[in-house]
Design brief:
alpha/beta; five-stranded mixed β-barrel; Rossmann fold; single chain; globular; 298 residues
């Protein structure tokens, strides 16, 4: 178990770098999608390797750095690249950045990835809104003693991907004309691509996408009480669907080809995120007033 003090030390280092700036949204950019981080205005860039206790990103196409600033007037922290279990890290180490961002005040996680399309009706180059996920083959970042300062021992995962944010994403896709599928993401630890038999099993379980990331981060974020929105870019058809090998070059090439559509969708989501935030604030204020009213009548 990683001591809580290490998270605090990492957060303290980042506070020194960003000053009074406080991010509200964390964006984790997956393979081929990191270029969106270059849209951050007035950026403050911090390399993972400079942050105490932080692990380095070694996957192709992952710059391995935070970019703090604003996009569409939203205060964001962007992770240009992530760390994966297949790089030799533990589940706790893979989600370290999520927990540090929680200590910096982040309330919402938008997580993205490149994935293989299991759903044969989908095509490479299409985006998908993640409605749910399947984890069968690996430990979770919550394994071991629970750190109650992050969350409860048994967090509920019934709505890991916030329904209201998913509706906001559907609206943003319609408004921007970006085709958006929706389905279930199945986590495989990698780094080898899945076999055709594994993909047939995943399809039987109800999965539409296969990938090697995201799920540990979502579990940690849900444990921390964050609201979550998840997207996959289908960079290829999963193993066995087409008679061709899978390569990392195909993943990066598809991400590059789809960068404009991805940016258009993400910008619109960030522009309209205030609608969801305002509703949450209104509900909290209403609940507070009701509580105060009850106390006054006691």
């Amino acid at each position: 178990m990683i001591p809580f003090e290490r998270y605090e030390q990492s957060a303290a280092y980042l506070r020194e770098k960003i000053g009074a700036f406080q991010p509200d949204v964390l964006l984790i950019l997956g393979s081929g999608l990191g270029q969106f981080g270059d849209r951050v205005e007035d950026p403050i860039i911090v390399s993972y390797q400079d942050i105490p206790h932080f692990r380095h990103s070694t996957a192709p196409g992952h710059k391995g750095r935070f970019v703090f600033g604003t996009i569409a007037d939203k205060r964001v922290a962007v992770m240009q690249g992530r760390v994966h279990l297949y790089e030799g890290y533990t589940p706790e180490e893979a989600v370290y950045g999520v927990r540090v961002m929680k200590l910096l005040g982040v309330k919402t996680l938008i997580v993205t990835n490149a994935a293989g399309a299991i759903n044969a009706a989908w095509n490479p180059g299409e985006f998908a809104l993640i409605s749910d996920h399947i984890l069968l083959f690996d430990a979770t970042p919550l394994t071991g003693p629970n750190e109650e300062r992050f969350g409860v021992r048994f967090p509920d995962m019934s709505t890991a991907y916030t329904p209201a944010l998913r509706e906001l994403a559907r609206t943003a896709a319609r408004e921007t004309g970006v085709h958006l599928n929706e389905g279930v993401y199945m986590y495989f630890p990698g780094p080898q691509y899945e076999t055709p038999a594994e993909i047939r099993a995943a399809r039987a379980l109800g999965a539409d996408l296969a990938g090697m990331s995201t799920v540990p981060e979502v579990i940690a974020a849900r444990h921390c009480g964050m609201e979550i929105l998840g997207f996959s870019l289908a960079t290829n058809m999963a193993a066995g669907i087409l008679d061709q090998p899978l390569t990392e070059e195909e993943v990066l090439e598809t991400g590059e080809a789809c960068k404009d559509s991805f940016s258009k969708l993400m910008l619109r989501i960030l522009e309209t995120l205030w609608r969801y935030t305002a509703r949450c604030t209104s509900k909290q204020e209403k609940g507070s007033r009701t509580h105060e009213g009850k106390n006054a009548s006691d």
